[in-house]
Amino acid sequence: MTEAAAPDPHREIRDAVRKLCADYPGEYWRKLDRAGEYPTAFVRALTESGFLSALIPETYGGAGLGLSAAAAILEEVQASGCNGAACHAQMYVMGTVLRHGSEEQKRKYLPEVATGRLRLQAFGVTEPTSGTDTTSLKTFARKEGDKYIVNGQKIWTSRAEHSDLMILLARTTPREEARKKTDGLSVFIVDMRKALGNGLTIRPIRTMMNHGTTEVFFDNMEVPAENLIGEEGQGFRYILSGMNAERILIAHECIGDAKWFIEKATNYARERSVFGRPIGQNQGIQFPIARAYANMRAAELMAREAARLYEAGQNCGPEANMAKMLAADASNEAANVCIQTHGGFGFAEEYDVERKFRETRLYQVAPISTNLILSFVAEHVLGMPRSY
Ligand SMILES: Cc1cc2nc3c(=O)[nH]c(=O)nc-3n(C[C@H](O)[C@H](O)[C@H](O)COP(=O)(O)OP(=O)(O)OC[C@H]3O[C@@H](n4cnc5c(N)ncnc54)[C@H](O)[C@@H]3O)c2cc1C
Question: Which end of the chain is more exposed for a tag (fewer CB within 10 A), N or C?
Fold first, then answer.
């Protein structure tokens, strides 16, 4: 597929990721998908190659690369037909520790996360009753001497069964007593190896794609006070500060997915012959693929711009959000077109199209739904009244 016109500063990284991913073809993912199993071997290979520690500074044992390099890694994973959702959080969840943790916490955790000895894959924010309205979450951490006692529940805590640590957002001041609803929330680093069976229960949720997501329950779970990140009560700000990076990375994953679908659809349209000619000779087949390509490229430009602003230390909130939305739309469109191009075979497991179709659908909803991005743009970019 034609690349962006400007020279790609991450060509070598992209080639190396592609090479690694070639060892994990469709058959590998299909088998896991059928069994609902976690891609342990793939995640280990990606960790050992250093790709998942791209954003950890060299002082703490990582590669010390910029966000655009991390984005290129995830994009290539998806464009290769693999699924980075199994481990993308290992790349950026540590950002909360890096930006707001104490020097001691950084030295304790980051080098171990960089080697993969410690897996920091779980991010516990969403709750069943609060949903997108994060500040009304109910999980409460009560301080008692040198520890916090946590009670409550999270939902959609992905990869919790395959992670040693969890970044947890909980209330430390009841919402009614906090000055603002965004105050009184705190972030903790939970060592799940110690907590499991000692107040922490993890229950898997089966979903339409193989995602390893769970619900987690806290019943008087103890967290040492030294595991509080930053200041008590400031946790919401800490979580928000990582959102732009997350949105930009997910946008690039969607771009990767869109590229995979478009390439797959194009190849099939050239090869499949019906009525004595390739189906790709019909404009009814060509145009939807061409449109999906154009929309993917537009989203790609927005995503690259968001990463550029982020790396330049400039405000990238609007671009990060818009990139995530446009890229999720582009991958969703490309997925749909790819199924249509394949006709009946689009539904057959062995083509991988239906699996990727299910996987990419998630990004219309998570980690932030399209409606909430539109609300952000309407309010913060266009200055219209807040709608909720
Ligand atoms: C597979 C999967 C993995 C996930 N992984 C994680 C994870 O690791 N950690 C984590 O913390 N969370 C995770 N999530 C949660 C995810 O971030 C939320 O599902 C998402 O933010 C939407 O929240 P909700 O499901 O509670 O939907 P709700 O908040 O209940 O919203 C339902 C619908 O209503 C719309 N809506 C709500 N309010 C408004 C409004 N004011 N205006 C217009 N529309 C509105 C939403 O856009 C959505 O379409 C995951 C979710 C899934 C499905």
Answer: C
